[in-house]
Amino acid sequence: MAEIPEDEYLLKCTTACAGCSAALALRYVLKAAGPDTVLVVPACCTSVLQGIYPNTAFAVPVYNIAFAAAAACASGMSEAFASEGKKTNVIVFAGDGGTVDIGIQALSGALERGTNFLYICYDNEAYGNTGMQRSGATPIGARTTTTPGGKTDTKKDIDRIIAAHNIPYQATASAAHPKDLFEKVKTALATPGPSFIHILVPCPPGWRIPSDMPVTVGKMAVKTGMWVLWERKYGELTINGPSRAVMKKRLPLKEYLSLQGRFKGITEKQVNELEQQLGKNLAMLAKEEAGEC
Amino acid sequence: MLTIATGNKAVAAAVKAAKPAVVAAYPITPQTEVVEQIAEYVTAGEMDARYIPVESEHSAMTACIGASITGVRSFTATSSHGLLYMHEMLHWAAGARLPIVMANINRSLGPGWNVWAEHTDAFSQRDTGWLQFFVGDVQEAYDTTLMAFRIAENNDILLPVMVNLDGFVLSHIMQSLETVEPGDYIPPMRLPHRIDPENPAGYGAMTGPNDHFRFRWEIERAMRNSPAVIRDAEEEFFRQFGRKYGPTEEYRCEDAEVLIVALGTLGKEAEVAVDILRDAGIKAGSMRIRWFRPFPDLDIGGRDLVVLDRGYSFGYGGVLSSEIRSKYPGASIYSVVAGLGGQEVTYDDIAGFVRDRRMGEEFWFGVDA
């Protein structure tokens, strides 16, 4: 395992909310990527947390682009760098709305074209910087400002949509497990062609948790099996780290839900639905890892 | 080299000569032949460009933006709905001060589906901060595309440039074409604000009102610089390659008492109409406008203007006639709306507009009597 460098590329002047785990994740992403990196950021919390012109909280170039456009922008950049023989890393850092909703077309196109880039979706399960409206990534039962009675629709399974593109490297990660994230970013950037990493980032104001709780909540997401850490290299799936143990024994889902204000008012029926989806997901991953599907 | 080509193939040949590093490509009628031809050049090794077959026009413009900000030359082409689908990114390209060149093959907008010439697509992008040229023949499509790269990349400008040519009546007709070797006519692209990991900076972050306001003014300042830069590009083109261009192409205007003012191929038809009218003793001239943004100064000199409009602002008036009226409030204008959706407008029709002109009025050809 590579040593995590002390160099910082996310500086100590972000305008992020207290306890923001997207910023925590980004810190490790940039440590893994190093200085020869360009970050492409569509409209999302990271457009806000980088600071206000002429300041920037990043020690790498960051190119802000329109909401639907991140993957296409990275496509153009990646080809342009290649045309000049440059090896600069092109990394999209996009929220869940910008990935699973408005940006999915450009993302799908860039993956299909074999673009040499890393696309990271940091998932706080809602439109964060506009004040927590539902996205396609919001889970059943979660209250957002546009689902005041709790969301009734299922979270979009972006990972299986991405998997259908048969890209060389795909992984999930968590801001609460930075070493695992660091390793995955390293692997992604060392793999030619498109890579995709989906990071769960608990959001204190959005999830209605105290600002010292995102790591605890993120770890609980993994312990309950609500979030599973895995990677798929050239089609071979491996379940990683703490998620291996969770495949055998997991904590009850309610221990994750009860930590968060957004799930107050979730119905028993919705909890059961989440349980069922979670179980089905784990079973599918186990089967895939065992080579049974 | 002397050859024959369609308007589309002339654009593609000019792009090949300009040597962009990145071309983003998405098909749409009647533009498709441009990106097909470039694909053939790239596949045959005649063009050393990265060809990105994007999944939409929104991504076509965005990929050009991503490429351009690294400091390399980029190109794309579109039409009609494709141009409108890019709309958000057209603003972005201009706001980010990127010298992207695009050919737009003018076509109407649905519904219903209509693939023929109309200028509504380009007019609807009027306020995006792009320079816009309208061309009248195959040679001019080629020459203007070459000039577009030089103009866009000039460091006093650094704005994207759109070259407009009429769908089918120019994109798909063949005329003679003389290609050139541009050489140092298009110097290497130097983007002062290109992305450089050794000099990290934030691009397009949250920007307060004062800075935002200043950046908008910088776009307008570049627009105000652009006439001199375009003139220089046109004069240098004449010096090196022998073909003369300007903000307008004027035909028999010197002693004219009535001018036909139009964009694109209607302006070419107008030249034939002028000859017909002159033979009948009417002192007519044609003033075909080549620059739409920046909008040029016109030498109208108190003469009657018969303005042909291939695009309309509903609830207000013909777009070109409105532009002229707004710049020259006292102008005597007969506004003729003609050629929408590829409606056939012959030189005899145009001569008829001039003969029957009713100054100060508007006439919808084929609708009004």
What key attributes describe this structure?
heterodimer; A: 293 residues; alpha/beta; Rossmann fold; globular; B: 369 residues; 7-stranded mixed β-sheet; 6-stranded mixed β-sheet; 11 helices; 18 strands; EC 1.2.7.7 (chain A); thiamine pyrophosphate binding (chain A); oxidoreductase (chain A); PorB-like (chain A); THDP-binding (chain A)
Give a verbal description of the structure:
- The complex is a heterodimer of chains A (293) and B (369).
- In chain A, helix 7 links the parallel strand 5 and strand 6.
- In chain A, helix 1 (21-33) crosses helix 7 (178-190).
- Chain A contains 12 helices and 8 strands.
- Helices cover 39% and strands 14% of the residues of chain A.
- Chain A has helices at residues 21-33, 45-49, 70-83, 96-101, 104-112, 158-163, 178-190, 204-207, 214-223, 242-248, 254-257, 268-289; strands at residues 37-41, 62-64, 89-95, 118-123, 169-174, 195-200, 230-233, 236-239.
- Chain A has one domain: Rossmann fold, CATH 3.40.50.
- Chain A is globular.
- In chain B, helix 1 packs across helix 2, helix 1 (7-18) packs parallel to helix 7 and helix 3 (57-68) runs parallel beside helix 5.
- In chain B, strand 11 (258-263), helix 9 (265-279) and strand 12 (284-289) form a beta-alpha-beta unit.
- Chain B is globular and about 70 Å long.
- In chain B, the strands form 4 sheets. A 7-stranded mixed sheet of chain B has the order 3-2-4-5-7-6-13, with helices on both faces. A 6-stranded mixed sheet of chain B has the order 10-12-11-14-17-18, with helices on both faces. Chain B has a two-stranded antiparallel ribbon with strand order 1-8.
- Chain B has 369 residues and is an alpha/beta fold.
- The A-B interface holds A 35-38, 40, 47-48, 50-56, 58-66, 68-69, 71-84, 88, 105-106, 108-110, 112-113 and B 21-22, 24, 49-50, 52-56, 58-60, 62-72, 74, 88-89, 92, 195-197, 200-208, 211.
